[in-house]
Amino acid sequence: MTNPDPTHLPPKPPHRTDAEGELIDVPAGLTYVWVVLGILVVLEALDELGWIGGPTALYQRWFHDTVLAVASLLMLARAWFEPTARRAWLAFGLAMAVWSVGSIAWSLVYGGHSHPPYPTFADGLWLLWYPLMVVGIVLLIRVRFDRFEVHRWMDGVAVVLIVLVAGFALVVQPVAEESDLGWLATIVDFSYPVLDILLIGAILGVYGLLGWKPDAMWLLIGLGILAMTSADASFAVQEARGVVQGGHYDFVWTLGALLLAYAAWVHTPPASDGHQPVTGMRAIALALIAQALAIGIQIYAVFEEVGRSERVVTAIVLVVASVQIILTRPRAEPAAPSVAHPTGEGPDPTLEPTESLG
Fold first, then answer.
1. 60 and 310 in contact (C-beta within 8 Å)?
2. Which of 241, 325, 355, 358 is deepest in the core (most CB within 10 A)?
3. DSSP readout, 89-149?
4. 294-301 long-range contacts, CB within 8 A, separation 24+
5. How far apart are CA 266 and CA 258, in angstroms?
6. Separation of alpha carbons 338 and 347, rounded Å
7. Number of H helices, E strands in the chain
């Protein structure tokens, strides 16, 4: 009996993919990574909520920055393994990486300051997270949807624009008027919740395209962005009022990063019949919500002063509705080509005349 030649080992089997070309296999031991990261997020949350004691720097810096860094590496690793949506997850991974670098750099430079300056260089990195996330969402849409209906995706954007205008009129504007921040700090401060809300609108539009039945991946992406949004909104209002309570909700950002990283590796079996066109009330749900919100703001404006927001809301609804009408307008079908007579002297008389599209 001869020993096998080690130089002629059988080739390593390729990674298995599903019907949509997405990776099914995951690296061994990845489950333990999720468990460790989950424990770190829970410990950070317990410390910031005041339920456990210990060195605050350990929880709010080391645990926080470690989860952000590992989450970005996991998303970049997904891009490395992913044969189909590689560019999408590369954009998501880069977005999380610049956020992580900004957080770590801020901790190294300003971690020991009781009154750190605002804004700082880290805000530039954190704001870069948003365009990279948009690129990732667009690329993922192109992979996941064979047929992308722009007018229905715009419903989600319309909803959040209306919420954004109402929120600025009722919350942000009064806070900004009482703020002592300079113009640059004010712009940076409120850029976070504005950009977050627009991201949520993009995700809502995707949910509408899925008939309000998002798979696990899109659901986790939405929850991750929602977690980031809630933390950003709280920080923006507190910073404008000058009462920032640092370290009381940082775990929400960490949780959002973990959800986004997990979304990169969760496997959702492809639908057997693909993405079917959505019909019925589900197809117009977001449009109805947008109209209801606009009507509600108009009614509120009758009893309370909301400044210019009601005009802005009305303009937004009209513009979005006009664009959607243009995109969904009936189009004439191309005329059927005439069939020549076998003798070449004209149309075949045996064919029935077609109705004019006039």
1. no
2. 241
3. HHHHHHHHHHHHHHHHHHHHHHTT-SS--SS-HHHHHHHHHHHHHHHHHHHHHHHH-SS--
4. 294/162, 297/162, 297/165, 297/166
5. 12
6. 7
7. 12, 0
Q: Which of 84, 70, 69 is nearest to 30 (CA)?
A: 70
**Residue 241 — very low, low, confident or very high, per pLDDT cuts 50/70/90?**
low
SS3 call for 214: coil
Q: Which of 8-22, 63-77, 123-137, 167-181 has the lowest average pLDDT? A: 8-22
Residue with token string 């008027």: 177
Pair 64, 254: CB distance under 8 Å: yes
**R_g of the chain computed on alpha carbons:** 26
The pair of three-digit structure tokens given for residue 189, joined into one six-digit string: 């401060």
**Cα distance between residue 224 and residue 254, in whole Å:** 9
- Name the residue type at position 60: Q
Q: Note the pLDDT tens digit of each residue in 222-232.
A: 999 999 888 88
By the 8 A CB rule, do 253 and 227 touch? yes
Count the Cβ atoms, other than its own, within 10 Å of residue 33: 15
Handedness of CA 164, 165, 166, 169 (dihedral sign): positive
* Coil, helix or strand at residue 23: strand
Q: What is the pLDDT of residues 282-331, one digit of tens each?
A: 666 666 776 777 777 778 777 776 665 556 656 666 676 677 667 666 66
Least Cα distance to 20 among 215, 203, 204 occurs for: 215
